[in-house]
Amino acid sequence: MGVAGNQTRRAGELLRALDLPVDAVAVSEERGVVKPDDAFFARLLAWAPGEPHEILYVGDHPANDHVPAARAGLRTALVRRGPWGYLWAGDPEMNRADWTIDSLSEIANLIGR
Q1: Helix locations, the chain, DSSP H
Q2: Spatial distance between the Cα atoms of 107 and 76, rounded to a whole number of angstroms
Q3: Which of 26, 33, 35, 85 could pair with 80 as two cysteines, CB 3.0-4.6 Å apart?
Q4: CA distance linking residue 29 with residue 94, whole number of Å
Q5: d(C-alpha 29, C-alpha 99), whole Å
Q6: At residue 113, does pLDDT exceed 70?
Q7: What is the sign of the dihedral through the CA atoms of 50, 54, 58 and 59?
């Protein structure tokens, strides 16, 4: 499991210092690309193990997360948290994620499918 997002180098350092139960952390400032640029997802695919359809990308914004992730061949989950997650979750025109979840703790159930 990895964490990847539009964050600063400093945020990457802080996330790594938390010793989260993840295999790796990648932030946009270190990679030189930001979401929703397709290059962000291409670099994510080069970084993450597995085939695109085996990777679940979780985010809260269709335009920044789900649309470009799906275009790259990833499976997607919209997490209903923060204003964007709630705003888009009930809108079928915007929420085209494979799954909608209420908590990051639900990820384990999704990847077991």
Answers
A1: 9-17, 28-31, 38-47, 67-71, 82-89, 107-111
A2: 11
A3: 85
A4: 27
A5: 28
A6: no
A7: positive
Quote the CA–CA distance of 5 and 1 in Å, as a whole number.
13
The amino acid at residue 29 is E
Q: How many residues make up the chain in this entry? A: 113
**Across residues 37-52, what is the average pLDDT?**
94
Q: Residues 32-45: what's their mean pLDDT?
A: 95
Per-residue pLDDT for 32 more than 90?
yes
Q: Are 49 and 26 in contact (CB under 8 A)?
A: no
Q: Cα dist. 78→19, 24, 60, 73, 104 in Å? A: 25, 21, 5, 16, 10
Burial environment of residue 74 by CB neighbours within 10 A (0 to 12, 13 to 18, 19 or more): buried
Task: Write the pLDDT tens digit of every residue in 14-23.
Answer: 999 999 999 9
